[in-house]
Automatic annotation (TrEMBL), chain A:
Origin organism lineage: Eukaryota, Metazoa, Chordata, Craniata, Vertebrata
The family this protein is said to belong to: Belongs to the VPS16 family.
Boundaries of every Vps16 N-terminal domain copy: 15-414
InterPro entries in the cross-refs: VPS16 (IPR016534), Vps16_C (IPR006925), Vps16_C_sf (IPR038132), Vps16_N (IPR006926), WD40_repeat_dom_sf (IPR036322)
UniProt-recorded name of the protein: Vacuolar protein sorting-associated protein 16 homolog
Its job: Plays a role in vesicle-mediated protein trafficking to lysosomal compartments including the endocytic membrane transport and autophagic pathways. Believed to act as a core component of the putative HOPS and CORVET endosomal tethering complexes.
From TrEMBL, chain B:
Record's keyword annotation contains Magnesium: no
Pfam families assigned to the protein according to its UniProt record, in alphabetical order: Sec1
Keyword Ribosomal protein included in the entry's annotation: no
Family to which the UniProt record says this protein belongs: Belongs to the STXBP/unc-18/SEC1 family.
Protein name from the UniProt record: Vacuolar protein sorting-associated protein 33B
One BP annotation, GO: vesicle-mediated transport
Compartment annotation: Late endosome membrane; Lysosome membrane
Keywords tagged on the record: Endosome, Lysosome, Membrane, Protein transport, Transport
GO cellular component assignments: late endosome membrane; lysosomal membrane
Tree of life domain: Eukaryota
Membrane topology: Peripheral membrane protein
Organism annotation: Cyprinus carpio carpio
Amino acid sequence: FVAYRGQTELLGPLRKIELYEMGWNLKDGLRECLVAAAPYGGPIALLKGHYRRSPSARPQLEIYSSSGLPLASFPWKSGVVKQLGWTVSDDLLCVQEDGTVLVYDLWGGFKRHFSMGNEVSQSQVLETKIFHSPYGTGVAILTGALRFTLATNIDDIKLRRLPEVPGLQEAPSCWAVLTQDRQSKVLVANGSQLFILDNTACTPVTPPGLSPQASSIVHMCVSFSYKYLALLTDSGHVWMGTSNLKEKLSEVDTKIKTPPKQMAWCRRPKSQQPSAVVMWDGLLIVVGECKETIQYHLDDDSVLVPELDGVRIISGTHHELLQEVPGACEEIFKIASMAPGALLLEAHKEYEKESQKADEYLREIKEQSLLSEAVRQCVEAAGHEHEPETQKTLLRAASFGKCFLSNFPPEQFVSMCRDLRVLNAVRDYTVGIPLTHTQFKQMTVQVLIDRLVYRKLYPLAIEVCRYLKTPEYQGVSRVLKHWACYKVQQKEESDEVIAKAVSVKLADAAGISYSEIATKAYESGRTELAIKLLEFEPRSGEQVPLLLKMKKSPLALSKAIESGDTDLVYTVVMYLKNELNRGDFFMMLRNQPVALSLYKQFCKHQEQDTLKDLFNQDDDHEELGNFYVKASYKDQRLEARVALLQSAVDEYYKAKNDFSAKTTEDEMRLLRFQRKLEEEKGEQLVGFSLHDTMTTLLSVGLHKHAEQLYKDFRVPDKRFWWLKLKALAEKEDWEELEKFGKTKKSPVGYLPFVEVCIKHHNKYEAKKYVSKVTPEQKVKAHLAVGDMEGAAEAAIERRNESEISTVLSRCSATTDHLLMERLNRAKATAVKK
Amino acid sequence: MSTIQTEAAVYSAVQSVVGSLHMAHTEWKDAPGLPDFSLLKRLARDQLIFLLEQLPGKKDLFIDADLMSPLDRIANVTILKQHEVDKLYKVELKPIVSSSDQLCFLIRPRIQTVKWISDLVNADKVAGRFRRYKIIFTPQKFYACETVLEEQGVYGDVTTDEWNFYILPLDDDILSLELPEFFRDNFLEGDQRWVTTAGSALRLLQSVYGSFSKVYGIGRCAKMVYESWRELMEDGEQRTRQPEFAKVFLVDRDVDFVTPLCSQVVYEGLVDDLFRIKCGSVEFGPDVTSSDKSIKVMLNSQDKVFSEIRNEHFSNVFGFLSQKAKNLQTAYDKRRGMDIQQMKAFVADELKGLKQEHRLLSLHIGASESMMKKKTKQDFQELLKTEHSLLEGFEIRECITYIEEHINRQVSMIDSLRLLCLLSITENGLLSKDYRSLKAQYLQSYGIEHLLTFANLRQLGLLEEQQAGETLTVMESKVGKLVNDKTVGKLTDAFSSLAKKSNFRALSKRLALVPKSGEEYDLRVPRDMAYVFSGAYIPLSCKLIEQVLERDGWTGMEEVTRMLNGQEFAVTGGSSSSEARSKTDAQRIVLVMFLGGCTFSEISALRFLGKERGCRFIVVTTAITNSSRLLEALLDNSA
């Protein structure tokens, strides 16, 4: 049983190809059915018995493939449907009377619904048209209030209410949607008047050369490309022209004055012969440029489906394609054609018969050097043929012709063979996508694969991908992903079985995103399966968003950390912060140091108080102490500072850090002391370190106060001596310095005394202390005051080689000649020792 | 050339210096050529221009202060103006005065800055002012920043972009990420956000210069960076081109804290310590230029004078420079006795070069004079001596006394801290008694805020108190009651070296980081990398690199890595075919990435190592660091 028979019937410049004998079994044919068939050989939807409005007999919605194989069937339970239509991605749109549009997939599964707006639902839908444009699928509605509402893309709904049509009292006789200048417009006929409605205005237009006898335009249709327009008048004339109404192509009298059922353009791209098809009950008329019309009878109620390169006619029993005969086919198959392709075909036929005539034909072509043209014609014609036998004959002829050409590029031939193999496969009755080659090229392989996937024809899709060598990422992997997404929704199988099946099938496919599949599983309520699938996801970052969605926050957090992507960790942390109560949130962070430190960084700048809470939660008194200390020196007011420091002290004690506690207490004392002095003496002191405070006090002569600090704060003797030394020298109070030096034995020794005097260029004073310096520092002291003799003496006395060298290096050869000799001698003995 | 040589013969005293430099120079020629890194700058510039053009029309540009210098190396003001940047401002986190309707912010992804921008936008909103705002984050944006925009309610008002300016080539062999905050964020705060940045930088290098045959590393961060890099590689397409580097070595700064804490004595390092090299250029003050104004100089291999002295111990530099000056004079003197024609040729060909050299020479002489003035002073010598004692582990008590005095006299806040840290690391922590007393003194000198600094240092393990309960302390206090102070010190030293397992000591012993004392070390003819620290210490980081490259992995270094807390790895990269080309130039180029910064001393040491081994090192660092920068990053005494 071969359902697809390429019975071709020639109708003048057109041909009618039988695509399928329909597989469905419709009792009443298409009578009383609302029918919608998707372009590009898409599915067919029928709503049976929708005219009967009784609650007991619900209409039945049925979906079939183009070959009439059932895909879905269910009773319609929603409101009254005014119109059915398909989107560019093969979703079914059901427009209800109240303006609600329900979206179903081609398996009859409900996807979503949307409304066409309040105005529509109030005044009800009168008529609807579903249209396609580069922006997607659109819906246009004529409401009961005789106003048009339009949405250009149902995936991104922006409702537009078009301006009023002047003088419109009742439903217009006909209307159509046009896409012009990147805008969707409505063309309305009110009697003999024609208007174009766009966003802003309603413009009356006149088709050039429309016969005056018409009093009303009763039907109109726009071509697939929106370029051409056909109008049918009540006088039975069909006017054909460009849709911008600037040019008339022809006008033909059908001689039938009853309104038709349907009208459609039938032309192929770049064709010079526009023709439109008008259908009445049982009659089909094709009108073209010439005055003649072609008529033929329809046995059955039928539906016209306009296509890019023709019109499909679907009846209760058959499915046919009516199209203009493609140029190449015409050239070859025309009776007594002398076109090179025709000759080549003939040559090949003779060759098969092993007849010498083959050579004659071939010679004839070659003489005109048209052989490559002949091959091209055959290849092209093969593409337009539906019957595989014809395709083969033509391709064989082309291949035969190629043998006699030395450098004919093979690409066209090869790709045509490939394309045809794919096309024949999808045209198969069981698949039921009757694409023409022109449609296939327009649609692209990508989209074809999508459609196969959508029809769950996964093995075929994969075959096609492999056969056409589609890159794995866009081809096989994509199909497998869709398969997996479908697989995880199969309720009857267990999680384990599915997870295993998915992982086995997808194992070595490149670029598979397991997280997407897992998302699907989760959406169909299978959380456990989703988690299992996520385990296969190699990029841990990809797992995170879904895990969050599934409320598996701890897992999400650890995966985010695993990914090493701090941004992801932040995402999770911020999510958790809003999702969990504070206590739980902190607890979770506590177990994840990476997240915790990230969050702390954030808090440092954004939420200081949270930082404190975090430390509190952890009983981290040490950090709390540090926190208060930090806060204290940001505060300008002394009381606040002291209070903060007191808090720090408490925390440090809690942390058993006595050292820090004591130090902080000292600081508080120091601050109070500084303030007191500031008030009394007017010296700027608050905030200084102990050392700096004492320096300041000493430099302004407040020795007593400095000494008080020295005692109160257990300042080491050495420091105090250094401080005082420096302060006195700076004031050049040499008398006081001497006195100070004598108060007790200096804890820093007396070399600093020498140095400090020298620093202030007082050699005289410096010398006073040289004698007091310890033996180890004598040399240095002598050198400091520039006493070379003394230095030499000391060095020699100590028999220290390096000291002797130091002195030597400071001697100058001219003045210290004798000294150098002595030193050198001493050095020699020192070295010997 | 001949003149220079005859001249050199006359001044035989300095000849050996020049000679060794000459030797070095010829050896360099033998080393493999380096890839052209200026490409990275071009890429960055093109992207920046593209981003600026995304905001058409006149706009004011606000730049993060620390991005100013790097930006200047990529695109100067003229280029910015060409792309309709009207006025340039430094980000100061203060209210702004700009009349432009379009504000563009070029910033590091910091929460603080983003918050400031949010405030500006909100202020404009209140004032009813409409402007367009664009934030360009470099090198990438962080989610946290966007969160701030969102929380401040300006997310919709601001457009954001990323300028993937990951790497700034500072010199032929130095690439910098210019991210000083990497160190504190990663090692102190535990914030790992920069890890991916480092990974992306490596990925960038790989995509431009080809893949690597082998990757080694040590440290937690190094490991994470490697992982992040590997993941990026897997995501992107693989390129099979001839690699321009063979090996990569990743090292965490916290593997070796000793090296950056030591005073630098190699010329380039010393210039950095004293004058602070910023983004490859330095500003010499009036004391160097011997005029009343400061001069900015680029310090890189383009500077012929500098390139010859940068790796030299500073004690050699002055001699070399004076020699150079004399040579220069001779070159000038050639003029005498020239006829017109010769003079013309001289002016045309040589004079400009000579003048240029003259200018640079006088600057470097000025710098080294100022250096000598500071560094040959008694106290610097004593400081060095203390450092060396600490490294060798001798006379620790004296060192502590020295440090104490250093603190008490308020010599230098940073230097004191540095010595404390050095003491703690080399001694594996301070005795409780010492720790408390030194800390108390430090706080007295510099204020209580440093409690926080000390907390930071402890957290990083830079300055620690030995845990109580160690028998040693108890022993010491008992002994202390019996004998006088000095003896206690000596005893303590003896005890510590016996009882404690100081990792630095053990490492130093195992890797022979500290040459035997007492041996003469001729700094003019360095025999190992120790010359960068006057022959007293071989930088641990560089020694590790040397050892791993020699062994082609970590085998035989198990004990060393154990003491460094493990986390080492060695991975053979993609193309094994590159093994076959082991003799090509690329195989002799090693990329070393320092995570958390590296010092010029380390770079000099690696250059020396490269010369010895006939290979070349390219240093990639998150920033150039030195002891001051390292410690300043850990201070917590201000805001």
